Amino acid sequence: MRSGMWGRGTATRSRVAGVLALAAALLAGCGTSGASRTSGTAYSRASADGPAQAARPLVVDRGLRAHPKVLRRDPRPGPPHPVPSASAASPTPTVPVAEEAPDCHKVKCVALTFDDGPGPYTDKLLRELAAYRAPATFFLVGRNVAGRPDVVRRTVEAGHEIGDHTWSHPDLTRLSAARIRSQLGRTDRAIEKAAGVVPAIVRPPYGAVNRTVRRQVTRPLVLWNVDTEDWRYRNSARVARAALKDARPGSVILFHDIRPTTVKAIPRVLKTLSKRGYRFVTISEMFGGKPPRLVYGGPGPKAR
Ligand code: NI
Predict the structure, then answer these.
(1) How many whole angstroms from 108 Cα to the centroid of ligand 1?
(2) Closest among 197, 207, 112 to 165, alpha carbons compared
């Protein structure tokens, strides 16, 4: 879910603007409540396929190679994705980056990010991404994870990155430190239980960040620099146009895979950006495994 406020500086936004953004989002129905209402159907359908059969066609090549690394990870609680020896001093968690991931300083990269799922259309999206061998990043809402653990497992197995998008999608700037930690910790545990991984990155709902949030979240906070406003304009052609118009090297594009119109727009986005020479990367891949503390967009080649 978007905020519309980050461009003007999330840390300094006024209380009034925050209320307006929140109200606008709620009025527009940009919430996880819609997804929750329908959470039974696709889960049953996916289960009927059987987990092994369902996972295989979704897997992109890079995902297949990254997969054993992901599943071997010790599922017991601990620091998320500890950094191996070399950069042990760094406070920034890292995630495994596929060997074939490009250097985004040298080639044109774009990160497709999908918020608020998993939802009834996430499996369809996984198939579309697999067709283009395009890894993406999914910022999951904990209470949706609990309803669709199989979808989360298939997402990880396919080589996509998972981020924490809180348990119930509150504006974190209105919560106490303890409640911020609880929103994220509960979601981490649900994702870990579903897929054996702990997210190394966090996307705050509405892009809302203040000093308390920054203090409580030690993982990179991932915002975006291309907003498709797909929660507002539920029209596939319009969503695709919005993504394609603003895409540049290093773009982090915000989508919501709980919207069927969004999922329908993705093949055109994948096809057009591929033709323009873009490589699709996860957020961690975009930064060589070490995203900064606050992410709006990634690096791009200096000369184009
Ligand atoms: Ni959201």
Answers:
(1) 26
(2) 207
Query: Is 118 in contact with 140 (CB distance < 8 Å)?
Result: yes
Distance from the alpha carbon of residue 36 to the mean position of ligand 1, in angstroms: 14
Does the annotation mark 115 as catalytic?
Answer: yes
Q: Could you tell me the pTM of the whole model? A: 0.73
Which member of 115, 164, 171, 188 is catalytic? Answer: 115
Q: How far is the CA of 136 from the centre of ligand 1 (A)?
A: 16
| 2 within 8 A of 231, measured Cβ to Cβ | yes
Position 100 confidence tier, pLDDT thresholds 50, 70, 90: confident
Tell whether the model's pLDDT for residue 245 goes beyond 70: yes
Give the N- to C-terminal CA distance of the chain in Å, as an integer: 32
CATH architecture entry for 6-74+91-295: Alpha-Beta Barrel (3.20)
Query: Per-domain residue ranges for the chain?
Result: 6-74+91-295
Instruction: Tell whether the model's pLDDT for residue 241 goes beyond 70.
Output: yes
How far apart are the CA of 115 and the centre of ligand 1, in A?
5
